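Hi D.,

Good news: the full-assembly prediction came through. Inputs first.
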Amino acid sequence: MTTAAARQRTQHAAQDSHAIVFDTVSKRYPDGTVAVEALDLTLPAGELTVLVGPSGCGKTTTLRMINRLETLSSGCIRIGDRDVMESDATQLRRHIGYVMQHSGLFPHQTIADNIATVPRLLKWPKSRITARVEELVELVGLDAGLIRRYPHQLSGGQQQRVGLARALAADPPILLMDEPFAAVDPIVRTHLQDELLRLQARMGKTIVLVTHDIDEAMKLGDRIAIFNQNGRIAQFDTPTRLLAAPADEFVVDFIGADRELRRLALQQLDPEEIDPGVHVAGSATVGDARTRLQQAGSSGVVVLDEAHRPLGWLDWERLRQADGLSRIEQLELTPWRHRLHERTNLRSALNALISAPGDVMPVVDDDGRYLGVISQVQLTRRLS
Amino acid sequence: MNPEWIASHTDDILAALIQHVQLLGLSLLFGLLIAFPLALLAIRWPRLYAPSLAITGVMFSIPSLALFILLMPLTGLSMATSLIGLTLYTLLILFRNIVEGLRGVSPVVCEAARALGYSRVRRLLQVELPIALPVIMAGIRIAAVTVIGLITVTALIGQGGLGQLFITGFTLSFTTPLVVGFVLSVLLAVAVDLALVGLLWWLTPWQRGRTS
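Then the structure:
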């Protein structure tokens, strides 16, 4: 316990040195356009910060100033306590991972060579590079058989995974991602987003991700900076806070009309709200079930199998018509199309409930065992 | 055709062939040494592109014989004269293809190289140049075949590789050297072209099996 806590503390100390601090940073182009104006922003170490906003709002410029792909006009950016402008640009970039929209893989190199780019620039020994490439291929979920191929032989989603592996190759503490999932189809995108969250839970890197998609921002960001058209930040907050207390009209508009639904997506079922409900075993008789229902005053009953897993819904009408001595499992039950997991978010719960028989849904644990029910009435109460 | 003449002049024919290859190799080498930095300048400062193209274009359009005669007062009847002339002829094609090749490299790829920490020189040598190689090689092939033909003309200033066989043929009104010179120069052009294609294939494994 003590050692684990100590380790965590040292990790935190190490991570703090990788917070990214913008101190009155501006970027003006020679033609007079202002991309970013007097930006003050601290991106906490070990967190995934999303920069989001309409196109031309300066979010990409902000990202690119961190590894000096763009030079700032005034102000200063520090990583930990080091001013980025004081370090050598090439060296700096080798220690900051970078993922771009179109994977930007080198067409003339194999997948393995692409992934090995930064370790090679850092002159790692060959054996270490080979081992690292194998590790990364597994980490990002690529088929090991692909590493001798060339980028044009891979699908867009696979290329994007290679791009991520290449960015992570030298295990940089900071990862910059410029619209990394914008060019892949929606299904692959969802998948890649989930993978990123899974990886980040393990890696705890300081990640800065640019997107124009507010849904993506809400899903991925520990914190979100919403930029307005003037290259200024309208609000910088956690997703929950953005939804609960948007700073101004611009933020409200940007988050969109379905703000309440988004808010639900960030909340989980409260265990207190799970009602034990009325349930009977499939082996019970119709008479038993009637007695239970009449006592509880419910409109129907959840039928469970021997392993305590929900089989289906049985309403009062059908129970009334059945022969009192027959067994429940012999009757026709109304099955549910979904099961709600105890850690599901409220938005999915609401979606599932809309089509549920009896307006209730069974909630189950990891093994699919019945915990109770949640009703539409309860959820609607939370909405208001 | 006179096989006896061929048999008795094998050494001369071989020497002519070797000189032909030497002139070809050297003029391509010098051509690349000049065209490459010129192309880099024209990419860095796009305003230089049009004038560079115009100047190399004018050189390409000067009749070859006239060019060698123009150079004569400066460098005399030497290998230098023929090399300078031949090199000038390669410049237009090499310059244009190097610029096109390097410009054709996807900006996304260049950006990726920058973002990952490639220095400028390393990016040029390890990313842009290899990717531009097919286009550059196409230029080298055209330049090579053009120069192989032109070398014969330099025989008139006492150089000329296989071209000397033509001079011999004309002066003696004797067809055998003409035919030998002609056949060898065509064979050389085909062989060099095939060799360059093979070299490109060997250097660009990522292009194999790709329909282009």
